[in-house]
């Protein structure tokens, strides 16, 4: 009996030791993965697009997908469009809004997503003391303060909710510098700084090594440059027009940048000025997105610019979801400019779309394939990810309706 008890005790102690060793090994692997993820990856900064493509994603132990939840339809009037190139979401606690610039009325239109109706329309003057030349690029600081950065303007403009200009700040920027705006890179705000991408109107290959982001002090107009720098991958050959423009998501003190041709994230720390490279590749990207052979920038724009846009796959959005603490990155597959069967030009919006899901550390969680039938509008809301149905092949498409599909994040068992 005593021998049997001793045997059980030895087995129990052995099991505890094995469990302890497995636990130590597990946390050691986790720590190594974390350290690898948090390393500066300085050797990766100088890789070209083909070398970057060979880098493997960091994978999370969890898996996630996006599931269709509901269709949201909001009636619009005859002076409004059923899509927006630059929409903004604002959570006002008691209500949440889809906000868009209405070019026909020179107004900002606030659509209540819960009540499914137009809740507010703010008309702005185009000229004069309260003039705001362009409304498309704006940031909602709060429902009393709107910040505008009109395209081709050297002024940041702050208005109230009635359209009255409270402050007009001259931006201290060189004539050759361009504050880049795009669907994939909305304005962001941190402290007193308006964060936006900043480039020069020159061929990308001549801009390698310059800072691609900046902060504009909305009170003084002073411009502070931030990284990441334009990667050396753009120096080998010429890049298609616009594909060097940064797509970014500002989270805490980090500017996370994705360039349309590259399968990695460049993360720049605004406080330490450190930078690291993190792979985040779509499973539908089958080969590197090589840069254009053209070195003549002018001819490239006029001769092959459109063809490049159609036929090259690209990453077109990087969004952070603060409600669920995940990132979404949109990948768009290229299609032929001319349909081989019909001989007609394909529709630019018929390029298949997929959405990569990653955790806060850019570990790959999964990917949702949407295919064809959605417009390239994506908006993170407290209820989920809002995707526009403003595509003629979408069954919910209507010219007099703002229509969205709401997708909700779901972790898989």
Automatic annotation (TrEMBL):
The lineage of its organism: Bacteria, Pseudomonadati, Bacteroidota, Cytophagia, Cytophagales. The chain crosses the membrane at residues 9-27. It comes from the Bacteria. Keywords: Membrane, Transmembrane, Transmembrane helix. This is DUF4221 domain-containing protein. It comes from Thermoflexibacter ruber. The keyword Transmembrane applies.
